[in-house]
Design goal:
The structure holds 2 protein chains of 2 kinds. Chain A is an alpha/beta fold. Chain A is built from 9 helices and 18 strands. A 7-stranded parallel sheet of chain A has the order 7-11-6-1-4-5-12, with helices on both faces. In chain A, strand 2 and strand 3 form a beta hairpin. By secondary structure, chain B is an alpha/beta fold. In chain B, helix 2 packs across helix 5 and helix 3 crosses helix 4. The radius of gyration of chain B is 21 Å and the shape is globular. Classes of the chains: A alpha/beta, B alpha/beta. The interface between A and B is large, with 93 and 85 residues.
Chain lengths: 328, 248
């Protein structure tokens, strides 16, 4: 068979942004493999009422596994549900989002099914009946094209790379009974502490505004925060390794080799010189803007647009201009 | 408490890589290091051992004989002994996980620690696959780790928050950057490492089921331009973002 399974993600009863991307990527593969898209959603009772948008992006059948034991992400429970579902079917490919939890889940499902996994795909194509996966290696210093000798082919896709595309399908909801025993699970989530203000994560945001050592001190981050707010909830803050190591910003914001890899539509690098390890985390952004007082900073070599000068003068002007632009 | 820390020999993350024929990396003149995330795993292992006041940390790797250099570094940092499983690893993390599982199954470890990912293949899969093969609890991408009342408790950085997770022992945890900076080997540590046991044996690494068809450098970004100096350049930047890049 040539159907493709999209494993989507919800948190607190809301589908996460990556879900539309996984279904859209699955739809593109299914159009080439000659199948349809199935989606699978795991969550608490009531989840089925939140999944209709998946039809818009191409899900023909939406399998919903509802149980209050599955409210939060449970590795043991989720691995079992997904592996059991795949065992009873014959998918051409199974796509996960390469989010923190997707990267926890996909390898364990692959190991349980004894099939190989390609992680963090940035391109998918069907050639001569096989799925060809493009994925970064060496922290983005090389890109590999690989094929998988396994049935199904299991892949996780990098967030923000596969754009959601509306291609409507039936979206028939099918409830799947859950028969797991939560008392036997070895891992339990004690609590989830939401980041201050519930801001968008740097790995998911369409606009990222990152600051580096050139900002001189953590007190100057308010200028970045004002620029972020000017984008009206579409932007998140990032940071260079130097400022995270200095304790100015939390590690969750770090972009680069020992931090997050981001692929936003628009990336601002403010006071960041552009070390190799930082570039590895952001060079796949669609458009890069660099603001730096040093015209010879390496960041200008990868930036699409640069402004040379003092950030204390440029950022407030930029914030006002973005605000004016957003009103149009 | 017996802790196994699995590490990997990888090219220095600051090294410029030359891609040779057949999609291989030309390693001539390239410095090799312990994959940076694996250093977080080693550091976590040392801290847990030292907090417990007893036990041992075994540094382990699957790789070619040259990886003994990285195991020696782990010993210098503070591992008690090391094991080199000689075999060729590939991009297929499940094959690597099987080679490690064959050894670790017999080892009766309380805790197996790895870096969240190796900085070469970037597959981020060997840890959770190994946990699955061992049938033990698994927590990935932990930025903090502690043992409390016979359980392992970790912080995970998830999108938009921190998850506090606990697991029963034995468990496998993969580490990311977080609470603890890895220590540097002291001179005393380097001297002591020479006398610590470093065992070598042949590993059984199954054949890769991932075919590498091509490996290429990333496409160069088209040359950009400096739009101007200071805040006077902002209107031109906005125009370019709106009309040329179409991202506003």
């Amino acid at each position: 068979m040539a159907n493709v399974l999209a494993v989507v993600e919800q948190r607190d009863g809301t589908l996460r942004r990556i879900s539309d991307e996984v279904v859209s990527a699955a739809k593109s593969v299914a159009e080439q493999s000659g199948g349809v898209v199935h989606a699978i959603v795991i969550g608490p009772v009531g989840t089925s009422a939140t999944v209709s948008q998946l039809a818009k992006f191409g899900a023909e059948i939406i399998h919903v596994v509802e149980h209050d034991a599955l409210k939060g992400y449970s590795p043991d429970g989720y691995v079992q549900v997904i592996a059991d579902h795949i065992k009873g079917s014959d998918y051409f490919a199974v796509l996960f989002g390469a989010t923190t939890n997707g990267k926890d889940l996909a390898p364990r499902v692959a190991a349980r099914l004894d099939v190989p996994l390609a992680g963090d795909a940035t391109e998918l194509a069907v050639e001569s009946g096989d799925l060809v996966i493009t994925r970064p290696m060496y922290a983005g210093r090389a890109f590999a094209k690989v094929t998988l000798d396994g049935a199904p082919r299991i892949v996780s896709i990098r967030p923000n790379v596969f754009r959601p595309q509306e291609r409507a399908a039936a979206g028939t909801v099918q409830q799947v009974a859950f028969s797991g025993d939560a008392s036997a699970w070895k891992v339990t989530v004690r609590e989830v502490k939401a980041a201050a203000g519930g801001k968008l994560d740097v790995s998911e945001a369409p606009v990222v505004i990152s600051g580096g050592r050139g900002l001189k001190g953590p007190e100057n981050w308010q200028l970045l925060e004002q620029l972020r707010d000017a984008f009206g909830g579409r932007a998140a803050l990032g940071a260079s390794r130097a400022v995270v190591d200095a304790g100015w910003r939390p590690h969750g914001e770090q972009v680069g080799q020992t931090g997050k890899t981001v692929s936003p539509q628009l990336y601002f690098a403010v006071g960041i010189s552009g070390a190799m390890q930082h570039l590895a985390g952001m060079r796949s952004a669609k458009t890069i803007v660099a603001i730096n007082k040093d015209p010879d900073a390496p960041i200008f070599k990868v930036a699409d647009y640069g402004i040379v000068g003092d950030f204390t003068e440029i950022l407030p002007a930029l914030t006002e201009a973005i605000k004016a632009e957003q009103k149009h | 408490m017996k802790i196994i820390a699995c590490i990997k020999r990888v090219p220095d993350t600051e090294a410029r890589l030359k891609i040779g024929a057949g999609g291989t990396i030309d390693s001539t003149g390239v410095k090799f290091i312990i994959s940076p995330y694996d250093e977080y795993a080693l550091e976590a292992a040392f801290r847990i051992r030292d907090a417990q006041g007893s036990g041992e940390v075994v540094a382990m790797t699957v790789g070619d004989p040259a990886a003994a250099e990285q195991l020696r570094s782990a010993l210098a940092m503070g591992a008690d002994r090391a094991l080199l499983l000689k075999g060729q690893t590939t991009i297929d993390g499940l094959a690597t996980a099987k080679a490690l599982a064959a050894e670790i199954k017999e080892a009766a470890a309380d805790l197996v620690l790895l870096g969240m990912k190796a900085m070469d293949d970037d597959q981020q899969q060997v840890g959770p696959m190994l946990a699955e093969l061992l049938g033990v609890a698994c927590i990935t991408a932990a930025s903090d780790i502690a043992i409390e009342d016979g359980k392992v408790v970790c912080h995970r950085e998830i999108e938009g928050g921190i998850e506090v997770v606990e697991a029963t022992l034995p468990a496998l945890v993969t580490l990311t950057k977080g609470a603890h900076e890895p220590r540097y080997p002291s001179l005393k540590g380097i001297m002591a490492a020479k006398k610590k046991p470093l065992e070598e044996k042949d590993a059984q690494v199954p054949a890769s089921r991932i075919t590498l068809k091509d490996l290429t450098p990333p496409a160069d970004r088209p040359a950009g331009r400096i739009v101007g100096q200071g805040s006077d350049a902002v209107p031109e930047l906005i125009r370019a973002l709106r009309d040329e890049a179409k991202v506003l």
